[in-house]
Each structure stands twice: as C-alpha cells, then as structure tokens.
C-alpha cells in the first residue's frame, strides 16, 4: 500500500543496511530531522511522518545516496522509470505517493537546509516544479467499467428508503450474522469474507457520509491506532483518523466515527 515499509530497491549488501535502506550517517541524520519536521506544526503535523522519511530514503538510495545526485533526470531515470517497468494500479499509486513525499523533502531542503545545498538548490526547485506533472501523468487509465459506473452514478440516486431496504435485506442480515459469530477464519469462504467486508463498508459510509476515497485509504495502521486509543480511553465509541486521502492537504485527516461494537 501507500505506506508500505518494504524497500523497493534492495541494496547489494543488505547486512550493512539500516531500516532496509543503505544510507550514510549524515544522510540518516538529515532524514531523521526531516521526519521530525514533518511531524511538527511547521511541517504540517502529518499523522505518519515515517512514510515521508521512508520515501526520501528510498529515492535517495535509488539515485546513489548523495544529495548532489538528487536531480530531476536521475529521479526519473533511476526511480520512476524502473518502478514503471512492471506497471500495476497499486504500483502507480505508490509511486505517486512517494513523489508527493519527495516534494515535501525537497521543499524542506530549500527552506530549512539551504546552507547544505549550495548549487543543488536550483536542482531542488527543478524537481519541485516537475513533480506535479509527473504525478498527474501517473493517474490510472479510465476503463470502460469506470465510465459505465459514472454514468450509473449520475442516473441512479440512493435515497434513505434504499438504505433502509438494504439493512433489512437477507444479504445484510447474513453479513451481520457472519460478523457477530466470527470465529476461526478457516470456517469461512471467500464469499463470506467479501459479504462481511461489503456490509462493513456500507455501514461506515452510511454513518459517516464520506467520499469513497476515505474508505479506500483506510489502512491497517489507521485501524490499529484507533484500537490503541480505545484501549487507553475505554470509551464506548472511537474515531479512526485517515491521514492519506484526496483532500488531506486542505482539510487534514478524515475521521471515521464508530461504536466500540
């Protein structure tokens, strides 16, 4: 997913690597300072600053672990292009996220570490200028199924009575029974899992009225963080924070409020 900590460019000698990426001490310190900056109010107080620092590590590792080598041409030829050789929707989405995090890193270098850059400052500006167009070009192609779904969304509206009808349907009742009686995973089929998942998504959508993108970006880490909060407060309900979504840069993290049940 977008925040996977798997290094996509494994170094030759993995035994000498720290956090799955080979990087010297000075760069390690610089990236740690970047991580702290992203977590601070001046850096936007991002919920998962480690995702930003990880992206910086991976891209620096790809271009040669040297700020002087972090150029527009090298980022594209040594990071973006190799990542696209086996193109898939997940991989493209991951690249777009990493490039967004790289933009934050380059801005940090210009604004906070100008004394270290020297002549490289102009190259950081070139990278920042190129990144929005790169991310835009990496959007998933629109398929015939997408067009049909959009046409259907315009033609067919969902009303409260439709939601009530669904909640009383056999499908919903069966899914609810699966969730309540969930035991060993080996006792359920793939169809059972899909039915339960779909039902949970409907319940979350109905109770929170979010765009689908918020649910799409609801990660395991977001879920675990919410459970940890519930364990600390022993409240009857909890709020999950979804840090990465379409309007996160404008409106901040999205929230999913659910009962403890």
Give the H and E element order.
HHHHHHHHHHHHEHE
Strand order of the largest sheet: 1-2
* Tally of alpha and pi helices: 13
Shape: elongated
Please give the share of residues in helix: 55-70%
End-to-end distance, in Å? 27 Å
Structural write-up:
- This protein has 261 residues and is mostly helical.
- Helices cover 62% and strands 5% of the residues.
- The chain has 13 helices and two strands.
- A two-stranded antiparallel sheet has the order 1-2.
- The chain is elongated.
- The N terminus is likely disordered.
Short characterization:
By secondary structure, the protein is mainly alpha-helical.
Task: Indicate the topology.
Layout: H1 25-39, H2 49-63, H3 72-83, H4 89-112, H5 114-117, H6 120-137, H7 144-155, H8 160-167, H9 170-180, H10 190-208, H11 212-216, H12 220-233, E1 237-242, H13 248-251, E2 254-259
Antiparallel strand pairs: 1-2
